[in-house]
Hints:
There is one protein chain. This protein has helices at about 140-150, 165-170, 195-205, 240-250, 260-270, 310-320, 320-335, and strands at about 25-30, 40, 55-60, 60-65, 65-70, 80-90, 95-100, 110, 120-125, 130-135, 180, 205-210, 235-240, 255-260, 280-285, 300-305, 345-349. By secondary structure, the protein is α/β, with parallel strands linked by helices. The longest helix is centred in the C-terminal third of the chain and has 13 residues, at about 320-335.
Amino acid sequence: MKLSQFKYNLPIELIAKHPVEHRDESRLMVLNRATGKIEHRMFKEIIEYFDEGDVMVFNNTKVFPARLYGNKEKTGAEIEVFLLRELNREQRLWDVLVDPARKIRIGNKLYFGEDDLLVAEVIDNTTSRGRTLRFLFDGDYEEFKATLYKLGETPLPKFIRRNVVPEDRERYQTIYAKHEGAVAAPTAGLHFSRELLKRLEIKGVNNAEITLHVGLGNFRTVDVEDLTKHKMDSEQINISDEAVSLVNKAKESRKHVCAVGTTVLRTLETSVTTDGYLKPYDGWTNKFIFPPYEVLVANRMISNFHLSQSTLLMMVCAFGGFDRVMAAYGEAVKEKYRFGTYGDAMLIL
């Protein structure tokens, strides 16, 4: 399949700038893959589609405040630094993106916060935009991390065209987030409230948790028409024995296994046996899923409505069928569903 096939017209006003007041009260489109039938529901009604013994697989990664604003030494030019991952805890080394990149050279110092609370030195140029920074900080590691997070901002995607507000720190995070390391939220999980999770538990629906630390690669534009030539950024994942046991037991019992989001789908498909069962895994994945691709582990999926020509849309099309999903997206635009990170959700049966 070609990149141009995943283009659709999305009016900019349909990209959600804010979350709905209550997590589980966004709209839910339900798409039946077999028939193409579409239903329009509320997200909290998703419980009606699951029964005792079914498994929902959640990504329990936790977003950290990864966006910093600082100034370059001497010129005072404002620089945006996006923390990608910690490279070395003792030496305070971080892999980052800088913007504007052209102004930053090896040896430059960057200053953050009032009274230059934090100082960093550029020690490596890894890509055109990427850099390695060494933070110069006298205190212990906990003090350093606290300072970094105090200065950091919730890393909302750039397509949400507004300033970050205090509520974003809570709302751009799933309520079950545990393991810190993501620079973007696994957005399908943002719709789950504590009340909804409790109701699912009472009904006998099991929760399995995996971890994929979501990276900025999710938002990287695909710039090749031939999708086989696109390379995904690597992301760290973990699939525990407990998650494997829950998923495989459900599959053996012919129960439903639902991937809550594209990050879960990609993680599950990274470590699967030839007969569709899950294996434990701790490592990295750069798996790129696009049609035609046969998904082996999950037989249901929850996802937000993704932007045109994104790798996330391609993954949803691989699961739900290209024609069915693109038709559903056309219906979503017509019905004025909300798109993107803070938007509405889709359940594919």
